[in-house]
Design goal:
single chain, about 525 residues, alpha/beta, six-stranded antiparallel β-sheet, 17 strands, binds flavin-adenine dinucleotide, binds iron/sulfur cluster
């Protein structure tokens, strides 16, 4: 535990059974922690409920086997996943920790482009000031003006980026030699910030907690900057069900204390869900809110990008200093399919090779052993393609399956379209050209089938027939229920989602604070609501 975490945790705990908070937030990832920051700073009392414990931040947090194979942060509740044409679902166990996936993220913090907002109920111009605020909150290091399809910016980045490492320079030079415009990826890692410690640019960043707390995850940024007198974090507590009145108002949250199994009823004037694009719809469905959703979109339109990692073997050691080199991004082809497919193509990013012992288990099938033996001679690029929102791709509650707390287990059902795969393969072909030009001899592709970029399962919309949330991300059928995680996104766009989730959580928090100041979230009835 570091000082930041201690200061949030050691707030004098109120009597949860009798206190009515202004706002209760479920989930402490980018969305939930950002809302906790903004709402507590707006003078509201906030209770943040998170099923995971605090990050350990010890030597084992940088151990590839412990984190990526043995699942040190893996939760006990299964998520069933049926994908890629499989008839039967398989069990997976998502990580659970205070800070959510920000703890494991690779730091890439890009804005969506103005064109990505064509099917959204808000425009890029409306979100722009919140993007700027999100970059300040997460202390993003980047350089404006180099990204060939960069959207308009009202501010510069808070910090200049780190100098390029050797492996990143190799990718930059060879991509530029192909006529592309590679630029330095904006990242939320503490290279030049004022707080200690600074990043030591180690090799175990993407996918790992930062042992020394130099990654700008939300425990080091949003929770640290929240008002400690107004924020209470209740870790290791599962949000089980919302109590819903006949008018759609939420009157309480039934929660389970994981330490003792005790059931609690927690109350607030307004409720903010941020349990992630898989967890939030599961909680809403468990609470019977599907019956109040007129659009039928709750749990549906699950997206996660269509991603692949391309690795090439080189005749030399590609990263002899063993540094983090997730520093380069290529967006040149971002708009190339917009006219024909209505989506972005996506981006290519530099990426570190996972540790040898991990490659041996998770490398491309048929080549695991060979790849692990030559791991220090491999360099990889990550291709992130936009995927389409399809109603068939969804989160639902698995029939007759409950977890150890007696709660219905969630099931993700997902298939990519041909067009999704084509966009990814176009990026992969370009990534191969870059790596071959850089001296790569032979390459393999590993397709990514995790839900690390999941979004879309409670999309916001201009009408309640078309989406689950109104433009303020308030559940159309409930005056005091808001959602701030990646669920709200009607399309996935072609860049990593965290900065957009953070920006939107700041926007929604502004609206919610205004609603509460006017007494609206507590008093307005469905159908008679206005959007501020
Ligand atoms: C390895 C990895 C690398 C990534 N790298 C990047 C990157 O470089 N850039 C980028 O933009 N994105 C990246 N991402 C994606 C990014 O981390 C996610 O998009 C983002 O964290 C989602 O934020 P969120 O707030 O929507 O949800 P989450 O971060 O998933 O947070 C949800 C939280 O809710 C909690 N929760 C769930 N259910 C309950 C419940 N019933 N009760 C209480 N709590 C609950 C969970 O434990 C979790 O803490 C990466 C993801 C992974 C896994
Ligand atoms: S690269 Fe920096 S921020 Fe990332 S885990 Fe290593 S020290 Fe932490």
């Amino acid at each position: 535990m570091n000082a930041v975490e201690a200061s949030v945790r050691d707030v004098a705990a109120p009597d949860f059974a009798t206190t009515t908070f202004d706002v209760l937030i479920v989930g402490s990832g980018f969305g939930g922690a950002t809302a906790a920051y903004a709402l507590s700073r707006a003078g509201l009392s906030v209770l943040l409920v998170e099923r995971g414990g605090w990050p350990h931040r010890d030597e084992t947090d940088w151990n590839g086997r412990a984190i990526l194979l043995d699942g040190r942060y893996r939760g006990e509740t299964p998520l069933l996943v049926r994908q890629n044409g499989a008839r039967e679902p398989i069990e997976t166990f998502p990580n659970e920790v205070v800070g959510g996936n920000s703890i494991f993220f690779g730091g890439a913090t890009l804005r969506l482009r103005a064109t990505d907002f064509e099917r959204w109920p808000v425009s890029y111009a409306e979100l722009e000031p919140y993007y700027a605020a999100a970059e300040a909150l997460l202390e993003v290091h980047g350089r404006a003006g180099e990204d060939p399809c960069e959207p308009p910016r009202s501010t510069d980045y808070p910090f200049a980026p780190l100098e390029l490492t050797g492996p990143a320079r190799r990718i930059r030079d060879e991509a530029a030699a192909l006529g592309l415009h590679p630029f330095q990826l904006p990242v939320a890692l503490n290279h030049r910030g004022e707080r200690a410690p600074r990043c030591i640019n180690c090799f175990t960043c993407d996918g790992f907690p930062c042992r020394i707390g130099a990654k700008n995850d939300v425990t080091q940024t949003a929770l640290k900057k929240a008002d400690p007198a107004r924020l209470t974090v209740l870790a290791r507590t599962i949000a089980a069900r919302l109590a819903v009145g006949s008018d759609g108002r939420i009157s309480g949250l039934e929660a389970i204390d994981r330490a003792g199994g005790r059931r609690l009823t927690l109350r607030a004037r307004a409720y903010v869900l941020s349990a992630g694009a898989l967890g939030t719809p599961a909680l809403m469905l468990r609470s019977g809110l599907g019956a109040l959703d007129r659009s039928g979109a709750l749990g549906r339109y699950l997206m996660r990008h269509c991603n692949g990692m391309v690795g090439y073997v080189f005749p030399f050691r590609t990263n002899p200093e063993a540094v983090n080199h997730k520093q380069i991004c290529v967006t040149d082809r971002y708009e190339s399919v917009r006219a024909s497919e209505g989506t972005a193509l996506g981006v290519i990013q530099d990426m570190c090779m996972p540790p040898r012992e991990v490659v041996r288990v998770l490398g491309p099938s048929g080549f695991r052993w060979a790849a692990s033996l030559s791991a220090d001679r491999i360099q990889t690029l990550l291709c992130i393609a936009e995927d389409e929102p399809r109603a068939e791709n969804r989160i639902e509650l698995a029939p007759e399956r409950t977890d150890s707390s007696g709660l219905p287990v969630a099931q993700a059902i997902h298939e990519y379209t041909e067009a999704d795969r084509r966009r990814r393969d176009t990026l992969i072909a370009l990534a191969r050209r870059i790596l071959r030009r850089a001296g790569g001899l032979a390459g393999k592709v590993r397709l990514i089938d995790s839900f690390s970029h999941a979004v879309g399962t409670a999309r916001f919309s201009r009408s309640r027939e078309d989406g689950v949330l109104d433009p303020d991300c308030r559940f159309w059928a409930s005056p005091n229920l808001f959602v701030v995680d990646g669920c709200f996104m009607p399309t996935s766009g072609g860049v990593n989602p965290s900065l957009t989730i953070t920006a939107n959580a700041l926007r929604v928090s502004d609206r919610l604070a205004a609603h509460l100041a006017r007494g609206q979230a507590a008093t307005t009835t469905p159908g008679a609501r206005e959007v501020a």
